[in-house]
């Protein structure tokens, strides 16, 4: 098909993809044809790929609204989660409308103003569909709005983020978008640079137009040139952010068997994921993208290896691989630190017992017995390719680097951030140990520390090798101004499910936490014990608490009048001093420590932290976690001199007590328990 023919057919093809009465064969064929169009015409096909994404988002929104309406009519105690769902839907509706408008504007700018028929405007049939019909009807044909590659890319970025948020915890939604061809879009976003090429084309066209401009003489007789097409005004599209969120959505979908089959069969895509995870692909130097790429490979090839071994060993297929065979599943909330290291792709020998349960054989593994005398589950599979079954697949997709089984890590270290923190920014290196500047309260951990630094990946991986390092992500708003966030119990429940699915807790694990992250871990272990998920409890051998409010925080004890300004999130209310829940959680950890099942290291801040910055340099400051709350009453305590709450987990150097004491603690635990 020519470009013009492809544009004319795009409306029909998308109708076949999303048609309620389309058969699987028709939908698959239409998806394949659209993929070929995107591959053939790259930047010129952006209105089609963007229209595909907008239609996908609108279709999912319709289903989500119906589901949310049904749930709202039933009694439901989880009001906060319902509020978050409603907020996400409202936000996604706005983004879907913006994305539809972006499709129309870009099409108008690319194809001109003759929009009356398909003969003069090939995309007319596509834009006659919903959700484009309204914006297309209102398009000012004689005065098109200024719209460039950066505007289009920004709309796509918002669309892919919204789609990810809506489908992140909804398996029905995930299966639906997989059927509607989202993998074709994700492959395009990850492996190609359509928006960068479009921006380059715009810059080239602008420079040529500038060269052909006639000089204009103003009244004063001086000459000037009209700069409306100045190439220096061309903006850079946010393609790196698009790639990051596309990689996140791919990780979420990679646990679906139908998705795994598609990616395993695509050698080019598999090779790109391996190159990206290893940091060898331009545009993949972002630590989150690298982690997503490795997690996707682990999710896919672990199941693929089990399937291959099942066939080779004549193990009956029960059809429920994830439930009956212990294959780790890495979610988007779990980031792998330094995913390029060999141990993330080191294969293990997989064996099956007589009933089809998977056993992994690993030398030098030491099992730790639980108080009840039960041995912990053996280490989970970390293989990203099948060992020995397909050497060519391993060589072409995963490189030749290998490691011996004796080097498989026997310890996991998991980092958990606190309020307004993040999986990487919380663990930066400090510029100084006392915050001297702060924005509003929501910026409390946004600017602290050196940008682009990450001491667990830069220092700890070198000083404490042969260890799997993870860092977790969860929403933790300090106030309601930035949206609702889940209460402590819901956050912990969600993370517990993800950790267990990833196999974290099947071997010794140490949690390193900051602020509320410590309470999240305590609640998670408490809930794991109540739900008989004893592996995680029995194998947690240590916890590091940086400024954890074991008995409450002064931030939550502010006068109620301040609440009118701050509008504290539900999580903050749970941090009030003397909270019975906090006391109960602390007693639970104290009991484990007393029985010798885990060790505890606590750090305490000594300086006030700026909370709200005012005019003239004035700032409201407070000691967020005093020493009487930072020390749980057991374990070791390190008092950090001249250090505030934000910087308690941000060391200045390797000799800083906030790093050195943690490193020594980890070495002691590894020697004692592994």
Describe the protein:
- With 674 residues, the protein is of the alpha/beta class.
- Among the domains are: 3-67 and 83-113 and 120-213 and 236-247, no CATH class; 411-434 and 449-673, Alpha/Beta hydrolase fold, catalytic domain (Rossmann fold).
- Helices cover 48% and strands 8% of the residues.
- It has 25 helices and 13 strands.
- It has helices spanning 3-18, 24-41, 46-72, 79-111, 124-127, 133-137, 149-167, 171-179, 182-191, 194-212, 239-253, 257-264, 267-277, 287-312, 321-324, 391-398, 455-463, 488-501, 516-530, 534-539, 560-566, 570-573, 580-594, 627-630, 657-673, and strands at 216-217, 223-224, 334-336, 349-352, 358-361, 412-416, 468-472, 509-514, 540-546, 599-604, 609-613, 619-622, 636-639.
- A 7-stranded mixed beta sheet has the order 3-7-6-8-9-10-13, with helices on both faces.
- Strand 6 (412-416), helix 17 and strand 7 form a beta-alpha-beta unit.
- The chain is elongated, with a radius of gyration of 27 Å.
- The relative contact order is 0.07.
- The model is unreliable at 73-77, 223-228, 315-325, 347-406, 438-442, 479-485, 559-568 and 614-618 (pLDDT under 50).
